[in-house]
Fold this sequence. Notes:
heterodimer, A: 242 residues, mainly alpha, B: 229 residues, 81% helix, flat
Amino acid sequence: MPLLFFMLRFDLLIFGDTGWGDELLISSIMTILVSLSAMGLGIFVAIFTTWAKISGNFILKIFANFYTTVIRGIPELLVIYLIFFGGSASIMYVAKIFGYNGYIELNAFTMGTISVGLISAAYSTEVFRGAYSILNKGQAEAAHSLGLSKFHTFIKVLAPQILKHALPGLGNVWQITLKDTALISVTGLVEIMRQSRIASNVSHSPLTFCLSAALLYLILTTFSSKIFNKLEDYSNRNDIVA
Amino acid sequence: MNFELIYNNFFIILSGLDETLKLVVISLSLGFIIAIPFALARASSFKILSQSVYYYVFIIRGTPLLVQIYLIYYGLGTILFVRESFLWIVLKDPFFCGVLALVINTVAYTAEIFRGGIQSVTKGQIESCKSLGMSRFIMYFKIILPCAFRQALPGYGNEMILMVKSTSLISLITIMEMTGLARNIMYKNYAPVEAFLAAGSIYLFLNFLIVQFIKFLEWKYNPHLRIKT
């Protein structure tokens, strides 16, 4: 182990023109941005797919089940390749229908967000569905008998409780999403993984940069799990401690 | 959509199935065997042992598998000491690098799943083992581990599926398994949807088989939960 320590080239990690420290910092911010927007997209999509699963509509339910089963049963890398190679083409196809014949190219950030977001949505859907299923049915009935509209029942009564029960699961989904963003490096987006590959190719010291990438991811996951713990404490603040 | 292309691609990608299966079977079976002592260490009251496994699991679960794969494939090879030792025979081969990364990864997750199972074994069972005069060894292998495994089955099934999905990352270190072949088709024919459908259906089928297998095992090892007709 001490031997390993001397093999790392710390001089390559300094900030400035000779080191890769600042580049790694910027790429970490990129990773955080992609993860946040993918998580946001995932939750947004998951609201609709969860609704499709629990609305009672048979056809919608089949579609939603198909979506979550397929995404959770297929390697993430394959989904990313599909969006990376097929994303621009399918958007141009749709644009052609609306009469636009130009060339559209999605940038790496958008494609990464869409692909990881769609993966994250499938996991979030299951989390929301689980959280909904442990809600007491009387809650909706009581809200209905108080004369709340369907919209208000959802916003004021059901959604806060679902969110509370879903929070631990969403923490896990966030960890998965954060780690999945490492796969976007194959599309050329310069996040931690890509930056450390570039740096190790230039400087011929892959060990230093692989380890620093691992360390950066470890810091991000640890830090975010702390935040989620705080959020859980906050959401349980009114619980009666037995 | 070109159905002929899907049909042709299907057999090209199917030829990568043996590579995928090799990776899955080797890493899962090695991971299973290694995870048992790790889980026992994690559940033990011996502080140093339990803490060190905790940190191992913490590090592996906190970093993406891709980083671990790159670290082993690109990183370890640059250490002169590794290059000159017998380790190089294993580490110069991308296949074994991939297997090593997958095993290290799955051991962390599986140990955590098994630990949950071991800790779910009730105190009364351990006490009755002791009162029957069983040795520690027999108690662990006849009572605690089988019970723990039964308890851990659903979680372990998820881990198996994750493992099948994880093998796709090995395509990034030049092993041509199914995802690697699918990527080649996407590059060459520019037919992403067709290649995706062909590869995705095989992965889905594999995972479907695993789900059924786990269901069968749960049925087999939980005779007291079966509905009597």
